[in-house]
Each structure stands twice: as C-alpha cells, then as structure tokens.
Amino acid sequence: MLTAKEIMTTDVVAVTTDTSLKELAKKFVETRYSNMPVLDENGKLVGVISETDLVEQQRPMHIPTVMALFDWVFYLDSEKKFKEEVDRVTATTVGELCSRNVVTCSPNDSVRDLAGLMSKHKVHLLPVVEQGKMVGVVARLDLIRAMED
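^ that's the sequence the OP posted. Answer follows.
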C-alpha cells in the first residue's frame, strides 16, 4: 500500500504568518493551489490557509442579537463568536486568518489513513511532519492520483 512519503509533494509552496492577504491572493492565483501551509518566522508549521478562508473573510459580518430588559443588555449570541467575526473581517495578514488547528500526518501513514484523516477532519491538505519538521504535504489531488496507480 502506498504511503504519504510516496505521494507527497516535497517542493512545498508555503506562506508565513506575516504574509499580507493581498499577497496570499496573488499566490493562490499564480500557483493554482487552494491551500497552503503557514509557517512562523522560524519556519515552523503553525497553520493552514485556504481559498475558502480568504473568501469567507469578505462575507458580511453577523451583528449579534441583543435583548434589553430594564437597564440590562443581554447578548443572545456568544460574545466570543462576535469577537471572532470582528477578527475575521479586520484581518490583514495570514496569521490573523489561518486555521491553527492543523491536522498532520507522518510519512509512513497509508493512503487509506490519509483519506480517513481528510474525511474525518474535512481538510484538503495534510502537512507531512517527521520529528517535528514539515517534510511535505499531501493534497486531495495527490490521493486521487494515487488511485490511478
């Protein structure tokens, strides 16, 4: 059975947390990739950013519903969710918008394991990590290509 090591892309196009969203959009267009790993200033994997993140950043902000009762104001929506909405629409860099809950795999994970991870976590890109260092990525297209063999 094929493993991540055998199907992964090792010439990875990544962005940093300081990359502007305008520069990110340009990279998406130039590379035709829809997801990219996000690295910190030391080259460590800290997140993943997608075209969907960039598109959703432009959607209208949901203003929370409030209820006034006497002199009290009650938020009917979560204040945390409202803060996340404000952070999303005001983001200017990849680090402010990327997903930090990164699902990764190891070089020896089987294609079946990779498909399971992608399906379970609804991700399109799996950074391949070995001894704490990103050594490549597996995208959904890599899995589909592996099915041809």
